[in-house]
Amino acid sequence: MMAAMRRGWLIGLMLLLVAPGAAPALADHGVGTLDTVGSDTMAGLMLRWGERLGREHPGLRVQLQASGSASAPPALTAGTTLVGPMSRPMTEAERAAFVARYGYPPRDIVVARDALVVVAHRHNPLSALSRAELDAIFSESRRCGAPRGIRRWQALALARPSGRIALHGRNAVSGTHGLFRREALCGGSFRPEVNEHPGSAAVVAAVADDPRALGYAGLNHLTPGVKALALRDAEGRLRRPEPAAVRRGAYPLARDLHLYVNRPPDGDLPAAERAFLSLVLSAEGQAIVEELGFVSLPAEALAAQRRRLGLPSAGD
Amino acid sequence: MSRWWRGRGRLPRGEGPWAWLAAGSVALSVLLLVLLLGLLAVRGLGHFWPADVDRVTLSDGRVLAGRAVKEAPLPGDAGRERLYRTDNRDLDGALWDWVPVDAIERVDHPDDLVVLERRRWGAFVGRLVAWLPEEGERLEGEAAWSALRARLARLERQREAIDRLREQTLLPLVRRLEHDAAGSTAALEAVRARLRALRAEMAGDRLLLESVDGRRLIQPVEAVLRAARPNAMGVGGKLVAWAEGVWRFLSEGPRAANTAGGVWPAIFGTILLVMLMSLLVTPFGVLAAVYLNEVAHQGRLTRLVRIGVRNLAGVPSIVYGVFGLGVFVYGLGGRLDAWFFEDALPSPTFGTGGLLWASLTLALLTLPVVIVATEEGLARIPDRQREGALALGATRLEMLTRVVLPMATPAMLTGVILAVARAAGEVAPLMLVGVAKLAPQVPVDGDFPFLHLERKFMHLGYHIFDAAFHGGDVQAAMPLIYATALLLVLVILVLNLTAIFLRHHLRSRHGTLSQH
Amino acid sequence: MRDAAPDMPLRRRLRQGRDRLATALITAGGIGVIAAVMAIGVFLAVEVLPLFWGGGPGGPEVDLETLWLPQSYPGLEAPAHRWQPTLPDSDPGPRFGMAPLAWGTLEAAAWSLLIAVPLALGAAAHSALFMSRRLRTRLKPTLELMEALPGVVIGFVAGLVLAPWLERQLALAATLVLLLPPGLLLAGGLRGALPGGLRRRLPLGWAALWLLPWVGLVAVLAAWLAPSLEAAWFGGDLRGWIETTLGLDYAGRNAVIVGMAMGFAVMPSIYALAEDALSGVPASLAEGAQALGATRWQTLWRVVLPAASPGVLSAVMIGAGRAVGETMIVLMASGNTALMTANPLDGLRSLAASIAIELPEAAPGGLHYRLLLLAALLLFVFTFLVNTLAEVVRSRLRRRYRRLGGAP
């Protein structure tokens, strides 16, 4: 209440027209703002969910800042946002920083599945890569056991294309970058020659324009201009990035897409977050997931999460 | 030596090779500028033209319908391939199709191809087989098309009714609840029920569609936004459709994750940001200029300060963005939140980027421009005007407000417009202090206090960057990016032309003044 | 006189009081505003200082050596410069070598100047000395308008239109660059050979306009010649030839593309300032030279340019300042690869672009945050110094003109 009085003062003093945050009573009527900071991969999803939510709850707003997953934990910890979409799980350090500030861990909600695909130009004869080759191409540390680095197409025993492999990837703040580094490079470090694009769409566009390029991007960014390469596992079997394989977990570079929410474990969700999550974990929300080219969650996983969050079970 | 002179004497026309290279560099610069603007104009405006849809039959019997986008050579001199935008993403899984040009057997333009813009899955291209109303009989052929047209017109009205209900009834109700929490929840429920009823009225009717290769699809009409048969349109009809497209681009919000729809919130955000910035920068800039030119002792220190201010105009805008983030957002904003909005924490109010901090940052960025321009105007005023006023017994304040400032007004105006033109095109600092990818609710609305300075906003320049690099499919967003870029350039050109006109006007006015 | 009432002194005192108050307010406000603007440098310096004093605020220490000299990192054969600030602390640990960023910034600026300066100075010389007055009043504002084109638009065109196009049409672009200068000279020569009547229709003063179709013609010629030239000289694959024979790798987004885009962006400001400097040279000097029989180009080269050289130099410096700080163009057109190579066909990453994409994610107060602020401080100091130097040079030039112009 002190704050409310001071707020009155502020308005009087500064004559700055400042909006008070939505009062709790209003939130129950579906009024409020949902500020989200985080993953660029999930930006399209968040936008579509936001659009959908706006049609259901005319008073609810979703604001979105999407520059990369790494921007979510600092924003959650600093309190600049309540909902942080991330395309990778939080690291221990990020979680610890959050817990140190609030005393409880952020709630982790898995909202969809995605996979990283290695893409080449549509006319590239290459069709599969092993993990060691991938590492030798993209990293300078070669932790996955390749004897030497691969810089040129000739080293892959292909007649065409020739010359240096042009490498494209995401910039370091993105979860895509982090996941690929951890999983495909065995935790090593990228070559400095890998082009760092501000978005996955830009990676795919760059690869589609250059027959000598290789890149990695989210599954949902695939276009006919590029082709997704299969991964060869240790036994020599090909793992293709197909939705069924991703849902099963058979494709190695798959990942969950998370929403992190800053709420104490026993506290109820505020109405705005509640409405949003209940849309996301509904059949309709998952249809949007499919529409955007991600892989939807199996029904059991949805139901389990809804129960955990205390949301009414699906079907409403 | 003497021969050199004679040679020159005989060839008075020759300016030597360098003169031609110099002339060429002007021509080249103009050409580049024209090319750039032409590219933006053609691609940006062409996007709204409802071009004919090709039906392409390939030699292997495959049929597809779409619009050709570009061509590229196939590897190994195997001819060329062409990219068609075929839409129908729910059927094919992709918006595009690459087709070898040699494999194309026939291209024709059947009149009955329809293009449906849908709320989900993007557009549909194909044939309308039948109209399947909720009640009543199934219609086919022309009758189905006219039924669809009539239904779409009604849907449009129903959508408007819903929007009106939302804006004029629901939101005011919600606002009233703010003051009287126990009050009219019953009324609120009634409005919601009416909204639900309207929505139910929109649902029901369906379409039976068929793609050119014969796959069928049932499409609820509710999710169709617009329908057109571009191959059956005349030039007049296409012109009308083009104008409607441009208008929708300017007046609607973005759809489908910023890859379709319009840019109205971005236009609004850009203009509001620039207006707030000029409100902030004008008084402070003029104040500083008046101080520097009229009040301060004109010594070495003032000269140094003047040079310093002038040079700040050359400091990169990103540096101002860093300052805005560190001082305004993290410093001032965090402090404000801790003091005045602690009941909203951890949800930040001012501790995150927003309209206020962005406009302050831009104001700081453009302050040197305004100071320099105003000072130039002040320096141009002959001292005898000031002396005359003082000699007539005016105090310095009266001299300033009655004589000097009115005469310097055009210079100030020029400065402000130059500042606006510079600010409207800046994107880098905004990325640090509060631009958002999507903020469909503009920062001005009917909610007290009407102008929400803490909100994030959209911006035309950032929209370009975002759609070009963060969007789902760059190729699909390209035309929209061109159109947005064209719009931004036009806005800035208009502002600059105003400044040039004003400067011209000012010079001619003061030119006559100093001759008295 | 008429109302020499006793309230007169009171009113006067009131007026004077008001005046004094207003003066004080203006002084306070003016100083406040100026201080606020100047606070930028102070803020950056204060935030950056803890980096070097009292150890880094947690995390790995940095000092001048780790920032600017090659370091040996695990997994790498030789010491190298690496800017990989977001690698996890535990393994393999973040790497803060800022040298590639500074190098990229300077490289981008150098290439853009290499492209902008000849164009801008050529254009300035032509429009100051040769262009017809009527055309000049139209053309000069047009070229100045170019300055207002937003970086994000130029960056978009460079990154998503120009870069893919160049990748496909490298040979055409190279042919065009080769053909343009001789093409222009040929235009001059052909015009000289024209019969008098036709020649008068094509005056040098309007060359900027009538050369436009000619340049277009040269471009068409280049498009026609390019495939056969590529086949004859480079075995039909210029890019492959560059890679195998020259040993240079071609990256789709490279320093030359950034240079072209940014050159286009800074060219108008260099042009405007250089043109002002050239046309500000007192007419008496040029007239004297021409009276002695010099051609206009000789006048420019021997008389006007030396007189205006400080102004031209300051124009170039201001262009350099702009190029160093331009963010969006580099961000969108460069590929953002933190490399330290001299190969102009490789990508680069600049300080400004790094700030724009990394600062929002860096935790305030952390090492990464402060290093990005250090980058901002470097940009600030560099541009401030360059601009001050340019300003000093220009004010000297103004004095020189006054002296020259004042001479009888």
TrEMBL record, chain B:
It holds the Pfam family BPD_transp_1. The chain crosses the membrane at residues 20-42, 263-292, 312-333, 353-374, 403-424, 480-502. Keywords: Cell membrane, Membrane, Transmembrane, Transmembrane helix, Transport. Coiled coil: none annotated. The keyword Cell membrane applies. It comes from the Bacteria. The keyword Kinase does not apply. InterPro entries: MetI-like, MetI-like_sf, Phosphate_PstA. It is a multi-pass membrane protein. It is found in: Cell inner membrane; Cell membrane. Residues 267-499 form the ABC transmembrane type-1 domain. Belongs to the binding-protein-dependent transport system permease family. CysTW subfamily. This is Phosphate transport system permease protein PstA. The lineage of its organism: Bacteria, Pseudomonadati, Pseudomonadota, Gammaproteobacteria, Oceanospirillales.
TrEMBL record, chain C:
The lineage of its organism: Bacteria, Pseudomonadati, Pseudomonadota, Gammaproteobacteria, Oceanospirillales. The keyword Iron-sulfur does not apply. Residues 102-390 form the ABC transmembrane type-1 domain. Belongs to the binding-protein-dependent transport system permease family. Gene3D superfamilies: MetI-like. It is found in: Cell membrane. Its main location: membrane. It is a multi-pass membrane protein. PANTHER family: PHOSPHATE TRANSPORT SYSTEM PERMEASE, PHOSPHATE TRANSPORT SYSTEM PERMEASE PROTEIN. Keywords: Membrane, Transmembrane, Transmembrane helix, Transport. This is ABC transporter permease subunit. Pfam families: BPD_transp_1. The chain crosses the membrane at residues 21-46, 108-131, 143-166, 172-194, 206-226, 255-274, 303-324, 371-393.
